Amino acid sequence: MNSIKDQENLSQKKVLLRLDLNVPLKNGVITDETRIDKIIPIVKFLIEKKSKIIVISHVGRPKGKFDKILSLKPICENLEKKIKKKIKLFDENVFNLKKNDLFKNSDDQIVFLENIRFYKEEEKNDASFAKHLAGLADFYVNDAFSCSHRSHASVSKITEFLPSFAGIQLESEINALRKVTTEIKKPTTCIIGGSKISTKIGIIKNLIPKFDNIVIVGGMANNIVSYKGNNIGKSIKEENCEAAIIEIFETLKKHPCKITFPEDVLVGKNMDDNSKVKELTNIEDDDLILDIGPKTIKKIKKIIETSKTILWNGPAGYFENPNFAEGSYEIANAIVKKNKDNSIYSVVGGGDTIALINQINVIQDFNFVSTAGGAFLEYLEGKELPGIKALN
Question: I need a surface site. Which of 63, 167, 313, 337 has the fewest CB within 10 A?
Answer without folding.
Answer: 63
